[in-house]
Amino acid sequence: MNIVGIERIVYGVADLALCTRYLTDWGFHARDSGAWGADFATAEKTTVALRDAGDPSLPKPHHKSAFFQGSCGREVMWGVDTAQTLQRIAAELARDRDVREDSDGTLHSNDAIGNAIAFCVTKRSPVVERPLEFNLVGAPVRINRQAAGAAKGMAAHPLRINHVVYLAPTQAQAQAAKDFYIGRLGFRLSDNVGDHGFFMRPGLSHDHHNLLIECFGSDSIGLQHTAYEFRDLDHIMHRGTYLESQGWSSHVGPGRHTLGSNLTWYFWTPMGGLMELISDMDYVTDEWQPRFIDPKTAGPPIAWTARPNPPGYRFGVPPK
Predict the structure, then answer these.
(1) What is the CATH number of the domain that holds 182?
(2) Which of 49, 61, 93, 265 is most buried per CB count within 10 Å?
């Protein structure tokens, strides 16, 4: 299936005004708003939608976690290349599950572990960033010019939605979800962590991952976090520092992951769970060979972090 990437993420939220302020502080571009909710866009025109948690048109909540307070992700929509691909997906999913089609052709269904998913022909406008210039030792290229990230008050905005992470209650269900996305929707496996974590990408993506399915145990299901790509580390630092100045709490980072290599900084969100600022993810091709990572020997998948984790820290668990 010629799936491009994530087109839209829909949240059902308990406090629309608070969540609107949160996304505004993240630097998203406001597209539309009203009593029904609000839509926000990345530079690529992929979108994050906020809707009232009680909106009957939303998929039912499929979420259980330590951080759940009435708001959570309700649906992830994937963009495809053509209407023909959309028809193929509809036929494939209709073999064993309900598929609903909107008047605009958008498909709605569920994955193998109950997460609401949707598909549409992509309307994104791909963003192409110019290469940055770095003065390496003995090889200066930026001469008599200030670095791009050195300006104070830099306006850093999310360029595109990069990935989402779902939690499955058991390893068997994580495996089933992996098999569904790969076998039914044409995703490709990038890396496998201990048979309970699966980094995947859709057929037309070169990102190391746009989807991660993990098992954290029976007390954690549903959409755990979403990730948004910024230009570089300077943009992550500018935006993350601003978020903290506005009173939003970070969870871990700034740092760099080992799987995918991306720079990272996680923030708690009133929309439910975490949102991650990222940049510089690995670009992979058909020649990439999936790796099996043993977490017992490899340890946590982070190369470095600028701040030590506090005592009792657990990823994805709010501090007490």
Answers:
(1) 3.10.180.10
(2) 265
